[in-house]
Amino acid sequence: MIIRCPRHGDGPGVFDATFDALADLRRFPASLPWALETPSIDTSESFCVAGSANFHARKDFPFLFIDKTSRMVVGCGGLHRPRWTVPAFELGFWGRSSLVGRGLFSEAADALANYAFYNFDAKRVDAICDDLNARSIRVCERIGMQLEGVLRQERRAPDGSLRNTRIYSKLA
């Protein structure tokens, strides 16, 4: 897998990956509110252009996960909300539903955490996920993150239900 910053022209690939993953992403709207929006090639391209600018400005670090052979975007992730005084980052990741269960997203999430540790001298990487998101929970645990706690009834889903949020972390 190739993991790199998005750039101009990546929008169609990100759109295809988003469309493939949309049903699964929308199962957790309290933690992924952007997935409720209708995806388009234009919004995906805007994400890529803004993501590249934010990456180079060191404000946010989005990444694309790309299959080496087919050059297909298989998912996205990032190191978000940098806290430079620690330094620490919030790890996020998602991928095509059709490719779940192959270890790709564990590989990508682990690579991003290691990127933070080696390139930014991060002391902490955390991940925040819905308490019912078993796939994200498994990825966090597979890459050696520890459960720090569960924030009970911390988010409200669009249907009005209250959702719990898990906080995982990995230390340098």
Question: Which tags fit this structure?
Answer:
alpha+beta, 7 strands
Description:
There is one protein chain. By secondary structure, the chain is of the alpha+beta class. It has one domain (2-123): Gcn5-related N-acetyltransferase (GNAT) (Aminopeptidase). The protein is 33% helix and 33% strand. It has helices at 11-25, 41-56, 104-119, 134-142; strands at residues 2-4, 61-66, 73-83, 88-95, 124-130, 146-156, 162-171. A seven-stranded mixed β-sheet has the order 1-2-3-4-5-7-6, with helices on both faces. Helix 3 links the parallel strand 4 (88-95) and strand 5.
- What's the N-to-C terminus distance? 24 Å
Structural class determined from secondary elements = alpha+beta
Count of individual beta strands: 7
The CATH superfamily label reads: Gcn5-related N-acetyltransferase (GNAT)
- The CATH architecture classification is 3-Layer(aba) Sandwich
Backbone CA Rg: 15 Å
Catalogue the unreliable spans.
none
Structural domain count: 1
User: Which whole number gives the mean pLDDT?
Assistant: 94
